[in-house]
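Hi L.,

As promised, TetR family transcriptional regulator:
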Amino acid sequence: MVISRKGSARPKAAEAPGLRERNKQEKLERIREAARELFAEKGFAETTTREIAERAGVGTGTLFLYARTKEELLMLVLAERVEAVQEERFRTLPTQAPLLEQLLHVFEGFFRLYAKDPGLARMFIRELLFMEPGPSGERMQLERAFAARLAGLVAAARERGEVAEDVDLEMAGFNFFSLYLTTLMGWLSGALGPGDSWRPMLERAFALQLKGLGPGAGTSGGNKRRRS
């Protein structure tokens, strides 16, 4: 605490952390924007971390405090967009539509995002899947939060009678996310073809999952088959 000449106390020490945090956030935004611009202009492979640091107006040492590698910079750029798409998709969700339609609405936003730059998207998904343990904690939190929102859709569908009462909501959200990720990888690899070729595949996968979740699944008929 610092005492001014007028005798009033100024909490200078308390203000410093807030200022440092703002400066840190401003640098992060400059780095993210510089990486976004250069990846768009030159492509991921041709862009160097030194160029990103120069455009952001920071030293390379400072840059590495925010991202240790160019791959982590890619995560900084696209993770922000992915979160924005997620928010937009859930905000515009057709709340009265069947669960299948709601799921396709949510995931369509991500396919539209990745279609803008499939090469960058392939790199992003690869890094997302095989990121080193150190920086993966935040990514895992984001994935769990997203799966929880999907579980919320299943819970609402259960209230409408679309799925059985004993459905494991957490696992259902995880399963839908896994089916999306598998379809996305097939689409980005070209195995499913161009354009909206992902949609019929994802719709079929979700429909099959929902058939297994539906009322009457796992009843005595299924138990008899397992015992035979």
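The beta strands are 2-3, 9-10.

Thanks again for sending the construct details.

K.
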